[in-house]
Amino acid sequence: MNATPPHTRKRWLWLAIPLVLVLLAVFWFFVKQPSAPAPDAQAAAAPRPSLTVTVVKPVRGQLPIRLQANGNITAWQEASVGAEVNGLRLAAVNVNVGDAVRKGQVLAVFASETTQADSLQSRASLMQAEASFENAKADADRARSIQDSGALSASQVAQYLTQEKVARAQFEAARAAFGATEVRLGNTRVLAPDDGVISARGATVGAVVGAGQELFRLVRQSRMEWRGEVTPSEVGRIRIGQKVQVTAATGLEIAGQVRAIAPGADPQTRNILVFVDLPRHADLKAGTFAKGFFDLGQSDALTVPSQSIVVRDGSNYVFVIDAQNKANQRKVQTGRRVDERVEVLEGLQPDEAVALQGAGFLNEADLVKVVQ
To answer: What is the pLDDT of residue 43?
Structure first.
């Protein structure tokens, strides 16, 4: 076996040394040294905002102090229009429910033939009594003129004077009877006692009604009022003439004024009625529900937009955004609501920023992106 010459082994040794050095350098670079993270990896490792929100700070200003109450809209006054004659037939009915009428307008007419005949008979009796009285008066005047001459005895003179008094009484009675028949004849025409709107009708053509039977109900002057119910502890804050904002069931908002306060409470509800005059409006219907707000002045208040209030589990919350753009859920106590702003009574400082748009989707400690 031939041994490798010394000069050959030396040459291979010099070739292996650089190769080993290169391998060591590669191993050190790729294995021993930690690799720097790529830019995309750095971005992926950083926390990302969960939501984009807008923020707003609370505003301090004046809010109206209002007392809310519930009640019903009723007619200011209703007039009952009834029959004043007895046993007559209704010949015509000229109005219906909802019709606007004027004072003195003919609402219905009774058949008047019998009443007219009675009136003519009373007129004839009156004329007869008047003639008898004039005759008796003439006889009495002649007796008075000659009673001192002795032509008539004292008893005869007294008889003529008595006949005059009797004839005068009969004449007055006949005139009263004639007046009664004229009134009865006039009552065959049922007239409106005031301007207003017909709210109920019981009259039917051809019906024979008795005296006093109701034929129509009339809302006087078409006026409505709101009767709000307040507790005894609240009624002391209300004054006559105070302004009231009434919201009807149809959504109509109308301004009223306190006219009167009931002197006592309802025995069932223990509430006190407040009578509020309302201006005339076609959309106001008697018997409908309405709520009202009594204007009691103004006071200072810290408010936030209603959109920033989040209702969860029956409580009100806002999300305060701190300097690190983290959302902190804060329970607050709210008060008055005016338009789109809500009063915050407790739980929020004036210099804290709260989430506005997107507040309803936040949770505690969420990282957010704030935009203007």
So the answer is: 46
Same domain, 105 and 122: no
3-state secondary structure at position 141: helix
pLDDT in tens, 43-57: 455 578 878 889 999
- CATH number assigned to the domain comprising residue 333: 2.40.420.20
Boundaries of domain holding 89:
82-110+190-220
CA atoms of 210 and 178, how far apart (whole Å) = 22
Q: Report d(CA 214, CA 285) in Å as an integer.
A: 22
Distance CA 319, CA 307 (A): 11
Global pTM exceeds 0.90: no
Q: How many angstroms separate the CA atoms of 61 and 82, rounded?
A: 58
Instruction: Assess contact for 93 and 106: CB atoms under 8 A.
Output: no
> Tokens 């078409």, residue?
222
Report which secondary-structure segment, H or E, holds 286: none
Angle CA(55)–CA(61)–CA(64) in degrees, nearest 5? 120
Whether residues 173 and 266 share a domain: the answer is no
- Assess if residue 9 is contained within a domain: no
